[in-house]
Design a protein that fits this description.
Blueprint (H helix, E strand, L loop, with lengths): L1 E10 L5 E6 L4 E6 L9 E9 L11 E9 L1
Parallel strand pairs: 3-5
Antiparallel strand pairs: 1-2, 1-4, 2-3, 4-5
């Protein structure tokens, strides 16, 4: 299990998707337990990078969220 910290961004592409941008500028497309997110939210997510999964957003690796903590 991995932990990432960053800022949540909303992208309206294809009906909407959530992105986490880390301090070093790396972007992850979030999936899984993403209820209650809002654009600009500082958060820590726990889960795993899914290397064999692709998304329509093509913003970066897919990250399956198992737990989200607001910061």
């Amino acid at each position: 299990m991995s932990k990432l910290v960053g800022t949540v961004r909303r992208d309206d592409l294809a009906g909407g998707l959530w992105i986490l941008e880390t301090a070093d500028g790396t972007r992850y497309q979030l999936r899984g337990d993403v209820a209650g997110l809002s654009d600009g939210l500082k958060a820590q997510v726990e889960g795993k990078v899914e290397k064999d999964v692709m998304g329509i957003g093509m913003v970066g690796p897919m990250f399956k969220v198992d737990k989200l903590t607001r910061l």
